Amino acid sequence: MKRRNPDYSYQLFDDNEVRIFLEQEFPPKYLKAYDRLTIGAAKADFFRYAILYKKGGVYLDVDSGMTKPLKYLIKPDDSAILSRERHPQFFVQWALISEEGHPFLKKTLEMIVDNIETHRFPHDVHQTTGPAAFTIAVNQCLEENPNIPHRIFEGIEFRGFLKFKYKLGKFFLYEKKSEHWKKMQQTIDIIKPE
Length: 194
Description:
This is Glycosyltransferase sugar-binding region containing DXD motif-containing protein. By secondary structure, the chain is an alpha+beta fold. The chain has seven helices and six strands.
């Protein structure tokens, strides 16, 4: 990625740095909501929206990659670039491209904090913080204001610019299938009680 995009800076955050960021950049209820999440994938979802909302940029999951330089994907006037999931009713959120302060991200953060505070989906990461929550927020924004700046690609991999399931990603993820968030959410509550 660095070789293809030398003009970009790269940042990785550990769990402690994420908490510090949320504490410094958001009202207290955001860190409180984040701390109630019990599954790492849900916490990663929360953080990707938060960091891009405050800083803007490009977010990629650790198990994804890039096939072409971003300068060929991102136009100077782009505010947000979305791509559809394999199930086209959802938007991809393993890769996010957005300017800071974008309304899609603001709405998503508000929605997931509410999902956590109300304990709405205790066994569903997808609905609480994942692609369903993101998609609902985007659709609500566009219903309220269809002129919000954005571009949408059809197809999961941003017309071949980005790649899901990067071959080295498996080394950074789960040692056992039982530790995968899809399995864990079936047996544990993904939201700690207050």
